[in-house]
Amino acid sequence: MLDVAADAAARWGFRVARGCADELTQLVPLAPLTSALGGSDYPFATGGNVCLPGAADQRLLLLEHLRDPLETLVAHGPVLLTLDDVQWADPMTLLALRSLTRDLASSPLIWMLARTSGGDAARLDRLFHLLEQDGARRIRLEALDGEAVAQVVTDVLGAVPEPDVLALATMANANPFLLVDLLEKLKSEGGFKIVDGRARVVSAQLLPRAQAVTRERLGELSERTRHLLQVAAILGRSFPVRDLAEMLGESTGDLLPMLEEATSAGIVESAGHDLVFRHDLLWEAVTGTLSAAVRRALHIEAGEMLLRRGGSAVPAAAHLIRGACRGDASALLGLDRAAREVLRSSPQTAADLSKRALELTDSTDPEWVDRAATAVDALTAIGRLSEAADLARPALGRAPPMAARRLRCALAYILLLSGRPADAVSEAESLLNQQDISDELRGVAEWTVFWGLISLNDLRRGQQRAESVLADRARHSDVAVVGALLMLSRHAMVDGRVADSFAHVNEALRIAGSGSVEAIQRPYARLLLSLNFRCMCQFEAADMAIQAAQGEIETLGVTVLAAQPALFRARVKLATGRFDDAAAEAHAAMTIADDMGTQGFVRVGLSILAYIAVRRGDIDDAVRQVERYLAEPGAPGMLFGSAWERWVEAVVAEARGDRERAMELLAPIYTDMERQRWALITAPLAAAWMTRLALAASNRPYARTIVETAEHLAGKNPDYPIFAAAAAHARGLLCEDPAALAFAAANHPQPWERASAAEDLGALLAATADPSTRELAVDSLDQALDGYQRVGALRDAARVRARLRASGVRRRHWAQPERPAFGWDSLTETERTVAELIARGLTNRQAAARMFLSPHTVSTHLRRIFAKLDIASRAELARIFAEKCPGLLGDA
């Protein structure tokens, strides 16, 4: 099928790129895609030792380096890319397929993937399921039916088969390759007689022979050729002649007669620089003639041969992992080398190699601890945190002092990522209490303690520790100093000293940018800066900080934070009332988190979707999102966790009419001053909402403490008007003060909150007995209705319409014309901007940078645009844009 598709595509003007996975190359990151795109012409193809400068985890960079040649290829016309035997694809290739098929969905690129049984079936099933969800079509090739078998026989023999020929054909078990092979062989031996266009079998004795046709094909070869093929089969379905000659200890010239015999017999054929078995069944038939013991021995010999050559150990590891026995020191060292090589580029492969090496290592072997440490690093990188922790703990007891310290530091970080900050702090402090630890480990341990205390909201303890570090900087590494500054930045923000918070985080960034700090520090600091900007409603600055953080996450390889830029953007979009964009960013973040193994951050995305669902009036969907959120791995102590998730749970509970549950969820915020300040800073709308909730629950003390905290923040930060607006809104509710509500409705920098304040003002004025306020009340409610409708807050708009009806005023369900479901007019403002940039020839990544979006989000918007416009290519989009917006493309 792939051959036919490739031929057809070439005739129709497609460029065709073809790759194939192999059982013995499935440890080489991106091997099938590398071969499809031209091998060593691309920077990620380095003979198995995939390496790009700088990054601690190179998966994000490798995906980018793979995306570039693909985008260049499709820029010159439509492309068909086929990958065969995907069941043997390496983990990085599967990740690339998931990511690139989605991101390049709007490009003129057709993917055809073929698989059979074998390999990692669960991982492959998941990939194919996700691709089907994205619109891919799956074709299952079943065994040939009777009619198809008759057609094949007719094609091969040039005659209509009699029943005895069809009976013979059933011996091939409806397998196309075996059927054609059987027919051609028996035809060449004169096994058929053709009379008047009909074919019959010459002798009934041919029937039993049909079952053994493949074995007979091998049996007819000379003994030397059979032995050559057995060794060749160990090297893989395709194999270099040079490797075969070296394995046999002969020159290439000496092998020529045997290779010619194997080729003439139809067992192998030429494929570029290598030879290849003509079909998997032939390859399997040859390997099946070897006993398990002999296969293992030959794999070891092949692995050792490749190791002796130097260079990458990954190709050798593909053999060693199949042949190594317990205690085989040489083979295990080869696996160690390979695991370390691919740790940064394909940590899943590194985990598989190191775990296999551990299985073959005696517990008393001094190499056990190093292998365990490699496995811990790899498992951490792919998000299998509990497995990594379970392996790190016993390794601690066996490791010599220096290795034990590194493992303890790694364990502390694992616990931090797992949402267990208290345990992380305990492990890191245990390490810091030891003597003679290196400056590097001490810095990382101190940084872990600071982030653990931030996650625990233990700011007093964190402040004391940070001030101690800064008071004696000479004794601490820059890593520890950066951690201390970020701790003080968080403390200052919670204390209401916003300017001090900015000063601390900017100093941390200055030190982190000096080059002496571990790579992981900079993106964390940048994200904290963006958080500060967003809380102060400085949205453009927040977007710029997020963009910088995303670039650093990719180039420095801080993959654990890969989903965070999209999550942070989602919160910015929420604050600016762009719910569609916020939802798109949340979905993009969850996809990235799932792809990269950091599922704990999926929780934040789900909480954002739950909040959007409440605002849109879909309470059932909001409940579903919260239920998914509660079922996700991770804990509220995840890095960058905050009061946001708890507050959203409360919003959903209140929307369901369960006010008691909402109050229960928020009790720690109502009663803890530090938590309360942090909640009101990070979610400015929380002040009014929590005040309103407390009043509805007849708990004025709770409402009063919220108002007092909001006014405290406003008084300490006169340069940041968000606090004055939020405090006025909360005070207006508590004191029934129309002037305060009017101030909030006029001055709050966030659109939903302005509408909320206008609604509260209208409700307050409508409740008075003074008829003169009726017109003011209606004006305020109209302002609220318009504000809610502009951001798509349908539930809130419906509530305001009900208030207006109670005042004797009826309003339409939508103040603006309804947007159609399809066609150019159905596009949102963001979608039109994306359409323009793509029509101008920008790539998804370039468009994302212009719009302060993630590339995944641009891909999501493009898929929606294509569906609404019923198109399938960027060229069609450019044509439509030129028609709808004449002159704009010419000005570019």
Automatic annotation (TrEMBL):
Key words of the record: ATP-binding, Nucleotide-binding
Pfam families: GerE (PF00196)
CDD domains associated with the record: LuxR_C_like
GO MF annotation: an example: DNA binding
SMART domains for this protein: HTH_LUXR (SM00421)
Superkingdom in the source lineage: Bacteria
Name this protein carries in UniProt: Helix-turn-helix transcriptional regulator
Every HTH luxR-type domain range: 820-885
A biological process term (GO) from this entry: regulation of DNA-templated transcription
Cellular component aspect of the GO annotation: cytoplasm
Keyword Phosphoprotein: no
Keyword Ribonucleoprotein among UniProt keywords: no
InterPro entries: Sig_transdc_resp-reg_C-effctor, Tscrpt_reg_LuxR_C, WH-like_DNA-bd_sf
